[in-house]
Amino acid sequence: MNASGAQPLTITVSDVSTVSALLLRPEAARAAYVFAHGAGAGMAHPSMAALAEGLAERGIATLRYQFPYMEKGGKRPDPPAVAQATVRAAVAEMTRHCGELPLFAGGKSFGGRMTSQAQAKAPLESVRGLVFLGFPLHPAGKPSSERAAHLA
Fold first, then answer.
1. Residue 102: CB partners within 8 Å, gap ≥ 6?
2. Over the Cα atoms of the chain, what is R_g?
3. Per-residue pLDDT at 28
4. In this structure, what CATH number is given to the domain that contains residue 111?
5. Residue 1 in domain
6. How many Cβ atoms from other residues are within 10 Å of residue 46's Cβ?
7. What are the φ and ψ backbone dihedral angles of 44, each rounded to 5 degrees?
8. Pairing label, strands 127-132, 103-107
9. Between the CA of residue 96 and those of 4, 30, 99, what are the distances in Å?
10. Which domain holds residue 32?
11. Beta bridge partners of 7
12. What are phi and psi of 54, to 5 degrees?
């Protein structure tokens, strides 16, 4: 366990890729939330930690995880196929740890978008709903609804 009480985990995304994760499960958890970081800050960012701790205080177990590019210290987000495979691996990992709880998935910005795109391609196993922590419908200064087309 780390300072916040979160348990460090390693998630296998593919035969050649693993990512770090942090599981925070309060004693009387009543639901579970798998959530991904945004494009510019990883799972250990203070805002991500604060969200996990706030949810734990309310009885929600959380699994925060890295995308492969962030795990490697890169700045450029992974291609959607890689990011979506990571989402699926994280959901499977949370199911192993908290499978008896109602499961939700999502994330902040890029992480929420990749989660929703994965869900649109093929339902995420056991996920009852998506929860977004900011979902930019378009890049700054470039109004568009293209990023939301899959939500229908």
1. 30, 31, 32, 128
2. 14
3. 93
4. 3.40.50.1820
5. no
6. 8
7. -90, 0
8. parallel
9. 21, 16, 6
10. 7-151
11. 23
12. -65, -40
